[in-house]
Amino acid sequence: MDTRYDAGALRAFADGVLRRAGLPAEPAESVARGLVEGDLYGHVTHGLALLEDYVAAVDNGTMERAGRPEVLADSGAAATWDARRLPGVWTTMLAVDDAVARAGRYGLGAVAIRRSHHIACLAAFLEAPARAGHLILVFSSDPSAAHVAAYGGLDPIVTPDPVAAGIPAAPDPILIDVSMSITTAGMAGRLRATGGRFPQKWLLDRDGTPTDDPWALKSGGTILPIGGLDHGHKGFGLALLVEALTQGLAGYGRADGETGWGAGVLVLAFAPSRFAGTDAFLRQTTWLAEAARGSRPADPAKPVRLPGQLALARKREAERAGVPLAPVITAALGRLSEKYGVPLPAAAG
Q1: Angle 7-21/51-60 helices, nearest 10 degrees?
Q2: Are 1 and 321 a contacting pair, CB within 8 Å?
Q3: Architecture in CATH for domain 1-66+310-349
Q4: Is the pTM of this model over 0.90?
């Protein structure tokens, strides 16, 4: 049974653990905030479930502790950074702020990042800039791993390659966070840990037989791209685009034999005020949002909702009643509490 904890207390706990593990104050605070934000939205595989792995990476030196990203190129509207294996949640937050500032000057801003460490929940980077009136896009791929085969193939070529977008609208922004595969390696890992299976046959085993068994990934299997067996060419095509936008623009990735857990990242920010104007932009996006919410549902018990609507509702409930954490996550936090002497927060309520 899940246990609920105050969000602020969880942020303070994660921040304290990361600092005692050796991260400086600024990246520790950013990583703690980003991980808890993932849990607030209900993205439980990309929230505090990652904290123990992140701390292990700090301990073994595969996540750098000191310094800032190196600027490799800067042409005004666009820049390329080498994150140097620094905490990916923090460096991506820096990139979002930088891209937004560039968009304010040029209408759009782009920051490509090579050698980022893992960046956790992409949705966590969207809400604040979208509420401030910026259209924000985040693309990510991991050049050190491969779980998804080319459509029609059996050998893993790419990762799930998520794309996230924060679109200003009223009363709430539209928040999109989707992978170019049907599921993720993180979800497979969670199901293996709990003895579960996927609800459908979203994987192929090593011989190409569709399966719902998450253990197939441990024996040469692959995750199907979006579209599955029927239309997976579309998902794989989109994955190729994400790989080009991240590793291609950053100039570093699979072709370099990267082996460290991490990401190639691209952040794009648009300032509607520099195009047709913020009010004109919101008039269009809000109309579309209202039309979607007001459309006739196929199931009267399930009204049509926008991307991000459920996540924002979960966040409001979690901020009110506490963030629900599964026993496997609280057990990991307990181990970190004991190791670093940071008290685990009391359960909410």
Answers
A1: 10
A2: no
A3: Orthogonal Bundle (1.10)
A4: yes
